[in-house]
Design brief:
- With 132 residues, this protein is of the alpha/beta class.
- It has helices spanning 15-26, 38-48, 64-73, 92-100, 113-130; strands at 7-11, 31-35, 52-55, 83-87, 105-108.
C-alpha cells in the first residue's frame, strides 16, 4: 500500500516568500498547498486537510491568529494538525498569544529554509504520539 503524500499548507501574503518556500518544500517530496490570505488558508485547511500548516500572522481578509483560532475551535478532522507560525512578529506577546492559541512552533522571519524544513520534520515526528 502506498502512503499518500504529506501535505504542507503554506499561508503567506508575500508572493515571493510563498513561491520560494513552496519550491524548497516541494523539493523535499511534500505536496504543497498555497494560500495568499487567511480566508484562503482557512478554506484550504478545511478542504485539503494538510498534515502541517505554515502560517504567517499578517495577512489580508483573515489574519493568522484568526485562522489558528478557527482551526483549534472548529478542527476539520480529529487528527492533530500542527501549526508552525512563520512571522516577522517577534514580540514576546506574540509568542505568548501563540502558545495560548495552541500554535505548535514559532519561527521568526527572516529565517533559513532549513529551519522551516527541520520544523516540519519535527512536527511530523510528533504526529504519531499525538494521534494515539
Amino acid at each position: 500500500m502506498i502512503n499518500p503524500p504529506i501535505k504542507i499548507l503554506i499561508a503567506d501574503d508575500e508572493a515571493a516568500i510563498l513561491e520560494i518556500m513552496a519550491k524548497k518544500i516541494a523539493a523535499q517530496h511534500y505536496e504543497v498547498i498555497k494560500a495568499q490570505d487567511g480566508q484562503e488558508a482557512w478554506e484550504k485547511i478545511q478542504s485539503e486537510i494538510p498534515d502541517v500548516i505554515l502560517l504567517d500572522l499578517n495577512m489580508p481578509k483573515m489574519d493568522g491568529w484568526e485562522v489558528l483560532n478557527q482551526l483549534r475551535e472548529n478542527p476539520p478532522t480529529k487528527r492533530w494538525q500542527p501549526v508552525i507560525i512563520v512571522s516577522a512578529d517577534h514580540e514576546l506577546e506574540n509568542f505568548k498569544k501563540g502558545v495560548h492559541l495552541e500554535a505548535d512552533h514559532y519561527l521568526t522571519k527572516p529565517c533559513q529554509i532549513e529551519d522551516i524544513l527541520r520544523s516540519i520534520r519535527l512536527m511530523l515526528s510528533l504526529v504519531p504520539q499525538r494521534d494515539t
